Amino acid sequence: MGIPNQWTAFCCSPGVRSDRGYSLIEMLIVVGMIGIVTAISVPVFMESNARSRLWTGSEEIGAAIRQARLRAISSNTDYRVVFDCPSAGEIRSLIMTGDPAVDDAADRCSQTLDGDSGTHSMPSGVAFDANGATSLAITGRGAFTANDAAIPLTISVTHGATARTLTISATGQITFSDVQ
């Protein structure tokens, strides 16, 4: 028993395929495949974007603390890294003048003295919790103390349900945890 002639024609044979373009079924299959790939990739992209913001925020805090320590050691001057300065979710390092009227002034975060850093803001949707500490004091020799908290100080950085922590030791070593 042989194969009927109607089954032996290939799709590229003349008369089988139209010269007018693609059929509606072919177009629907391609659009469906594009939809499936998009449905799979969008959540992965969103999670990657959230994780990137979280890492950027925690690295921004670590960089601000490292920069303040470097400035303190290189100038042999005390610095203070202040959390939520000048507003919530921002960090700033301030040079200590030795004058309590200036250093402890209520509006010190709004003032800019030579040696002060700019404001470091968290990326959109990222928040941090300094575990009760209002600031980190850094001596001219690079040693850390936390105001209103203990050293080692653990700072939690969150974006939605994901979190990353950084721990600052008395000697200025910063260690990061994995994303949870």
Descriptive report:
The chain is an alpha+beta fold and 180 residues long. The chain is built from three helices and nine strands; from the N terminus they run H-H-E-E-H-E-E-E-E-E-E-E. The protein has a five-stranded antiparallel sheet with strand order 3-2-1-5-6, covered by helices on one side. A hairpin with a 5-residue loop joins strand 8 (162-168) and strand 9 (174-176).
- DSSP summary: helix tally: 3
CATH architecture of the domain at 59-176: 3-Layer(bab) Sandwich
Order of neighbouring strands in the sheet with most strands:
3-2-1-5-6
CATH class of the domain at 59-176: Alpha Beta
Mean pLDDT across residues: 88
List the helices and strands and how they pair.
Layout: H1 5-8, H2 24-75, E1 79-83, E2 90-95, H3 100-103, E3 120-121, E4 126-129, E5 135-138, E6 144-147, E7 153-159, E8 162-168, E9 174-176
Antiparallel strand pairs: 1-2, 1-5, 2-3, 4-7, 5-6, 7-8, 8-9
Q: Could you write a compact summary of the structure shown?
A:
With 180 residues, the protein is α+β, with helices and mostly antiparallel strands.
